[in-house]
Design goal:
The complex is a heterodimer of chains A (254) and B (351). With 254 residues, chain A is α/β, with parallel strands linked by helices. Chain A is 35% helix and 26% strand. Chain A is built from eight helices and ten strands. In chain A, strand 7, helix 5 and strand 8 form a beta-alpha-beta unit. Chain A is globular, with a radius of gyration of 19 Å. Chain B has a domain of 72 residues. Chain B has an eight-stranded mixed sheet, with helices on both faces. A four-stranded antiparallel sheet of chain B has the order 2-1-4-5. In chain B, helix 5 crosses helix 7. The chains are: A alpha/beta (254), B alpha/beta (351). The interface between A and B is large, with 43 and 38 residues.
Amino acid sequence: MIPLVAEHITVSFTRRGRGAFKALDDVSLTLPPGSAVGLIGESGSGKSTLARVLLGLIRPDAGTVRIGERTLFTPSYPRPAKEVQMIFQDATGALNPRQTVFAALAEVLTVIRGLRDGRAALADRVTALLEQVGLSADTAARYPRELSGGQCQRVCIARALAVEPAILIADEPVSALDVSVQARILRLLRDLREQRGLSLLLVAHDLAVVGAVCEHAVVLQQGRVVETGTPAELFRNPQHPYTRRLLNAVPVLE
Amino acid sequence: MPTAYQPPASTAPLLEIGNLTISFAGEAGWVPVVRSLSLTVAPGERVALIGESGCGKSMTCLAVGRLPPTDQACLGGRIRFEGASLLDDPAAMARLRGRRFAYVFQDPSASLNPVMRIGDQLSEAMPTGHDDDGTPPVPRHARHQRAMELLARVKLPDPAALLRAYPCELSGGMQQRVMLAMALAGSPRLLIADEPTTALDVTTQAEVLNLIDSLVRENGMSLLLVTHNLGLVAGRCDTLHVLYVGQVVESGPVAAVLRHPAHPYTQGLLRAVPRLSSVGSGELHDIPGTVPPPAQLPPGCTFAPRCPYRDTACDEAPALLPIDAQRHCRCHHPRLRHGVPPAATPPEGQP
């Protein structure tokens, strides 16, 4: 249970011949322990860049990221941040096609966690991880190509949990999945947060998805925070024109 | 926003698919992925195909252009376009594909050639006069102008600069617009759009769908739209076919099906669409279980293992029967008058 506080993050990328491009401009974000925050914005708004900064993969030009007592990108904090784990949009692509599910999870346990268990103890740990994400033990022997998209995403979540993170960043975790499966993955994320006290940062472009899981939402546009609030507030009474535009773009059935 | 739209009174259908069966060679014989599917698309009609991955939506679309790999796939049944039989008339296929009917696929960055300028790719899609397809050829000197016009029609700014650009310089939404422009190059009567916006983000998604909608209306084209999100279909299509493991399980006018879905599968798909109105209530709905692989179809009704209403009658496969003047449903218990179905209990051990 550790908080994550990002303050005044600025990131620029240099583009050949066209000068610098500010991907993030003075963005601050707080993820209290055990909270779920949604990060909303369209492509190019800086959502994924912010996620990568929080993971310790991109060093910001300015600003600090504090995870608990320690500060990222200082000698006190070896990168990457093990307390923060990430799951990606393309779950099948995030798994090694030549590795069984067992190998993918065991690799994390032995290499990153540094466990020196025997094979039997390792198998028990893998089974326990798979159970947590609602997969049966025999999934361990499968290759990614034998699994559905939803099952691959569960394996990715199990792999992130294997590191025992305090904070989970999910970058568009359901937008590549069938509508019928999306709810199951979102419910899993919600349950994991309740059971393990994980903090969750959910990056999504679908506001309804954020509303189903998060109690707080941050709207990013062109690298700036334009609006924050609870999802219900944002959806009932959007203040910023950009939030309104995002809302209008959601397909409506009613 | 698209509103009430009356398709032109149709005479003969533009596209007619009858008893289409597509099988792939499996380890233990032929595995059917599409099973005796029939549908028609009238001139000016906008038809949607809905279903989860693995339900045969894309295969059906590809079969119209005879695009499934023919050394592995076996196509049965008939597909007629403007009266020509596409499956056994290679000459008709060569004349019609990409001209009278054109495709837009899911991933525009994979459909475009990464090392060719946009202008060259557009010119390549234009009729040359050597295809024996009856369309007037676009002479070489007129192609630049024609490419500019096509880009303007898909509402891309600064067409002159775009013609010299490579695909990697364009965003996903712009790439999909270029794909649309290429599809329009042959002045098609039917546009087949296979999940055209799944790879795009939500604001671009609405823009591209509205663009497709306006192009279809302006040019009086027909549309065959494939998607897994029922939310995208409302107001943009006239007729809806819901597919489950290679069969149509429900079909009818979009508005009627969305208002009173008859098949439990359609009801499940409809409830699974995340809605803004339920924000804060914490409600999340799914369909329990997964689509069975085509080689291991359950006996009887194929949806029964995932169905909240299953009973002994479902041990026998239901037929696609009319439930009113315009609608068909493949279910022993079409729930026309029922409201919200009871909460489904997921089968044991299902991921």
